[in-house]
Amino acid sequence: MLIDSHCHLDMDDYTDDLDAILARAKAAGVSQIITVGIDLDSSRQALALARKYSMLKAAVGIHPHDSVHASDSDWDGLLNLVAEGGDAIVAWGEIGLDYAKDYSPRPIQRRQFARQLELAAEARLPVIIHDREAHSDILAALLANPVRQHGGVLHCFSGDWLLAKKVVDLGLYVSLSGVVTFKNAAALQEVAVKVPLDRLLVETDGPFLAPHPYRGKRNEPAWLVKTAEHIARLRGISLAELAAATTANTRRLFAIEHEKDK
Ligand SMILES: [Zn+2]
Known about the structure:
Strand order of the largest sheet: 1-2-3-4-5-6-7-8
Shape: globular
Helix content: 40-55%
CATH superfamily: Metal-dependent hydrolases
Largest sheet: 8 strands, parallel
CATH class: Alpha Beta
Strand content: 15-25%
CATH architecture: Alpha-Beta Barrel
CATH topology: TIM Barrel
Radius of gyration: 17 Å
Bound molecules: zinc ion
Order of helices and strands: EHEHEHEHEHEHEHEHH
């Protein structure tokens, strides 16, 4: 059984066939999915989905793309969601820095990232971090605002092994997306092999970044198996072993109980 540690099920891409998507995920062995908010409205929808479907958990936060629009009322709104969400909300995210697209000015991105690291600590939640071409500033922010107590993950990890090692040394997890299956992803494949097995998560980041052989299509949680198979092959272990480890890691980080424990 796999857990998709990062997907955006509230996005319009999924509105028409979400039930079928979740059924296909289950049939493929993806037992749980974290659906991740990118702004207040999307976080609210993520919580609503997690309440509707037992296989879903939600994360709430403001994406760096939207950080220029975030205000105090958004922070209050997110904290209220956490208070009302209970077990359905397992993380604060996604937050971080995106210097590839620069949709928000970098100083604002940095300020809102630091602010949300504080809010996550206040909410006693682990963080889901987005890092695009901002490795050194991400590390600097994490050193200034340690998240050790509740932990966190660099989602859709896009650095090399040197960065992954620093992330692991900070006590955080590394999550790999379908990008690791692409032919030109040698640096990421090295990370997939070297990262300690107890620090690795897997994700789709759907609807984006579909793994080979679906590259370019709308991604969905069932296809997480392609990514997991690829990583297992690179590491020379079975899919079952990779799935057991990444599922245990995801449950540990996000304090998710086994379905059967409920
Ligand atoms: Zn995302």
